[in-house]
Amino acid sequence: MPPRLPLSALVLAGALASCGAPSASVTPFIASVGINGELSIAQSMGSENIKTTFKDLGLDENEAAVGGILRVGFGGTELSVSGYGVDFQGQGRVTGEFNFEGITIPAGADVATDLGIQMARAMVTWDVIPLGALDLGLGIGATVVDFDVKLQEIGGPNRIETNQLIPIPLLAARLAWTWGPVEMRADVGGLGIRYEGVEAAMIDAGINASVDFFGIGDLVVGFKTMRVDAQYEDDDADIDTDFDLEGFYAGLRLGF
Predict the structure, then answer these.
(1) Is the dihedral of CA 238, 242, 248, 254 positive or negative?
(2) Distance separating alpha carbons of residues 175 and 197, to the nearest angstrom
(3) I want to staple 207 with a disulfide (CB 3.0 to 4.6 A). Which of 80, 82, 135, 186 is the partner?
């Protein structure tokens, strides 16, 4: 996973230098993640950008993903770092012609697809409304998405591989509500960016509930969704994709 998120780290260090000892927790989790959306790969000059859905490519099954969430609190400020990776594989058919580095997979061709997505997110939020059991925080952050797709024409020699690392800054918010041993929490971040041939926008949100698990830690169950709309150039090709990743997850939160 992309390890460098310097903006959040610098903001945290500057803002929290005078705060006391932090509280921290880590939550490893397992998720079931599905993908919806479209993809096109076309020559930059003269080719029509016809998108093929991920369902058409045979990526219509949920896949298991392993990830984690780290939260560090300094008084009314919180740093949250999370990430997971998922790999989708399937066989289907391309709706439009795919062109990349002189390689063409014609429209209607059967293909085997391997799509890997790794994501890492960091957010720093500050308390706005700490009212007893209710906690609202606003802040900033960043998400890095590693998008890696491989397409192999079935029964043919043509193979296309493209990979892109996409960093996206975020405006972030968190809302937590505690009722006895149960905590409900929602996190959301989103924004768009354009730079050096890359244009991307996203919204990343999640909601979860947690409860004490026999004194070992807190059992956490939740739902995460991430929508990405990205266009970028890879050599002489334009890659245009929009996709939703969403699914339920469960984990155990350990405090220290």
Answers:
(1) positive
(2) 35
(3) 186
CB contact burial 168-190 (16+ within 10 A = b; e otherwise): bebebbbbbeeeeeebebebbbb
Give the distance between the most distant pair of CA atoms in the chain.
64
Contact 101, 237 (CB under 8 A): yes
- Residues 144-164 have pLDDT tens digits of 999 999 999 999 999 999 999
d(CA 43, CA 235): 9
Q: What is the CA radius of gyration of the chain?
A: 20
Residue labelled with tokens 């062109």? 99
CA 96, 97, 98, 99 dihedral sign is negative
User: Could you tell me what percent of the chain has a pLDDT over 90?
Assistant: 73
How many whole angstroms separate alpha carbon 82 and alpha carbon 68?
6
pLDDT digits (tens, 9 = 90+) for 160-209: 999 999 999 999 999 999 888 899 999 999 999 998 778 999 999 999 99
**Rounded (5°) CA angle 140-200-5:** 40
For the entire predicted model, the pTM comes to 0.85
pLDDT at 191: 94
Q: Residue type for 3, please?
A: P
